[in-house]
């Protein structure tokens, strides 16, 4: 079955998470991704465990469906190889600190002179402009600057980092949609362009409810635990044996919850709980009242009753429970494939289910420099030239 991005050629100089996640998704959709790793150690995630037969699982998770070249860009020969790669590429992506690509001779203006229609995407912590542009920035710094850490955690507790690298993934998703939009534009006009993506901007753009509260009423988001800022009940609640999530935020659901689940019709007329906005204002009192009832039965009892009455609800899983859930498995969110060194591997599946052009795992993450010869032969280099490059540390053997 043909894939949506078959024929799209991507040269990927990014490493760790945001850039590699972006190019993994492009590869999943059929793009030919050539990952160019730094000489001689490769992507930094190769040094991060856990390891299977000395191959990093972290690296393998986000670098499937790519061919790998380990190229020394501090040599003139290495830069010339990259220029040849760029000549017929559609997309180039990098995540160096701003200014480094200019020093290496691989900045947008240089590559545009080689390939005028190139779509060039840079991912950095703070972007290519602004007073922080030259600062090094990882996901946790982006979470701090965007306000995400300050608004996450229990109300009286310390600020808490979000449990995943959310700004990295936000930047990856921003890069994906931006590259595809630029590609559509190029199909119409023949014109490439430069795309500047930052971790901070990408995550900040997701804070839409918080921005609405601040711009509309001057409210600064506070830490609310699992509670929603403007809706209730919409959070985690303690039961006899654990915690569950209940989302009965609109009036119909709330009244159904009171009458059919907890059998507390008096809550409907309680002045503290008359409307959604009033309930949100009295969210702490509502939590106490609800947990006094919910603690009488186990989580499974309440989840079954809530489900039977059409009240949105769910468990709060540990990650191992998530990966064993029948729904997750039925949606094929866990896939298996064979790696030449690590052997049988499990990985996460494709979140979007295409009817005509589904995602596919065509190849595992490359070994360091695995496709050096294959890619350079395609570029027109002879076997003798490639051997010379290997001997002169232009390529990693």
Automatic annotation (TrEMBL):
InterPro entries cross-referenced by the UniProt entry: CoA-transferase_III_domain (IPR050483), CoA-Trfase_fam_III (IPR003673), CoA-Trfase_III_dom3_sf (IPR044855), CoA-Trfase_III_dom_1_sf (IPR023606)
GO molecular function: CoA-transferase activity
Signal peptide positions on this chain: none
Pfam family membership, one: CoA_transf_3
Domain of life: Bacteria
Keywords annotated in UniProt: Transferase
Keyword Transferase: yes
UniProt keyword annotation of Transferase present: yes
PANTHER family: SUCCINATE--HYDROXYMETHYLGLUTARATE COA-TRANSFERASE (PTHR48207:SF3)
Name of protein: CoA transferase
Organism listed in the record: Psychrobacillus soli
Organism ancestry: Bacteria, Bacillati, Bacillota, Bacilli, Bacillales
